[in-house]
Specification:
The protein is α+β, with helices and mostly antiparallel strands and about 70 residues long. It is about 20% helix and about 35% strand. A hairpin with a 6-residue loop joins strand 3 and strand 4 (about 40-45). The chain starts with a strand and ends with a helix. Bound molecules: zinc ion.
């Protein structure tokens, strides 16, 4: 089965980030590998992201949530 990829341009540094379409869901977060900005997806089609500030504590909780989703 072919995986659909989406391209996101980092608003902070212009880095092009490629994510799987099933990971590019509304409100999901990703980290720019170039400037380490945390980006939250605000629109799926066309895909749009916004840079957000997150406490390290909050980020840890998000990681746990994502792991649980993948297991189910
Ligand atoms: Zn960036």
């Amino acid at each position: 089965m072919e995986e659909i990829m989406k391209t996101i341009v980092c608003p902070e540094c212009g880095e092009i980030i490629t994510v799987a379409a099933d990971e590019a869901e509304l409100s999901s977060r990703l980290v720019c590998e170039n400037c380490y900005s945390i980006l939250e997806i605000t629109s799926e089609d066309p895909i749009e992201v916004t840079v957000i500030d997150v406490d390290p504590d909050e980020l840890d909780e998000d990681d746990f949530d994502e792991d649980e989703d993948e297991d189910e």
